[in-house]
What we know:
Elements: E1 2-3, H1 6-22, E2 30-34, H2 40-56, E3 59-63, H3 71-83, E4 89-92, H4 102-108, H5 120-128, H6 137-148, E5 157-161, H7 168-176, E6 185-189, H8 196-201, E7 205-208, E8 226-229, E9 233-236, E10 244-247, H9 252-255, E11 261-262, H10 269-288
Parallel strand pairs: 1-11, 2-3, 2-4, 5-6, 5-7, 7-8, 8-11
Antiparallel strand pairs: 9-10
The structure holds NADPH dihydro-nicotinamide-adenine-dinucleotide phosphate (NDP).
Amino acid sequence: MEVIDGNRIAADLIAELKAEVARIPGRRPCLALVRVGDDPASVSYVRKKGLTAAEIGIESRNLLPPVSITQAELESLVDGLNADPAVDGILVQSPLPAHLDERAVFARISPEKDVDGFHPVNVGKLAQEDASGFASCTPAGIMELLARSGVDLAGKHMVVIGRSLIVGKPLALLALQKRPGANATVTVCHSRTAGLAALVRTADVVVAAIGRPEFVTADMVKPGAVVIDVGINRVADPAKKSGYRLVGDVAYAAVAPLASRITPVPGGVGPMTVAMLMKNTVKAFHLRKGG
Length: 291
Ligand code: NDP
């Protein structure tokens, strides 16, 4: 069994992007990070994105409107960033406060600056296999992890558990694409799937994106399968100073001995999400500059 080291692979990708950005003459790529309010998880995610951008040499701008911002005000802030020629990528940190319509805000971002890949145009380009679009960062990161771990999906049966717009659905589309590294046969499972355990047992590659701690147990995994754990769940742990620990959607200790390769939590898929955001930002810069 081989543990897929997401920290190392993300660090490799970040080093490659840093070298690429260093070769760019003149203006650096610029990422606008919009965070509404002070939700602690969002504060920490946006900080991490800013730090990683700085490490690569990507300029970042923080826009921190108060939680009281209205839909119209937030959309007008996005309009300003769309119109600003010095901004290449726009990220609006999810989740937004409940009074705001997240989908409408994402759709307001110019598709060519939508480095999170949530705009309907980019979701459409993903379905059409148009490489000028932006794929959402977590599934794109999973594809990169697999490719850099030597896993060729061609002809393999991938079972994705979870059909969210952020992870499950775009990953299924990416794995299904007719291009080297992809070409998987994909099954997508969800809460209404009948006989889920039996389906997962037929998978050469299992991707768990459910949001339920240790949902995938050893009896659901075919020996030799590749197991990708997207889940990030906090479970109470009085032994920890924080009072909790992070666990994935896979029962790691029992599943790992069966798997040929497996991602840990933390240190698997998580670090790739931020790295792919940076990759998309550099791509947006090049596309906007016309090469
Ligand atoms: P969502 O809650 O949007 O989607 C969860 C999916 O799991 C849904 O499709 C749901 O089915 C399905 N599901 C829930 N319960 C069951 C069940 N009992 N049996 C089968 N399917 C079930 O979650 P996300 O996709 O946003 O996130 C999934 C996990 O990944 C979370 O732990 C999240 O924290 C983590 N995550 C990690 C990221 C990273 O960077 N590593 C990035 C994004 C997410 P249905 O559609 O029927 O409700």
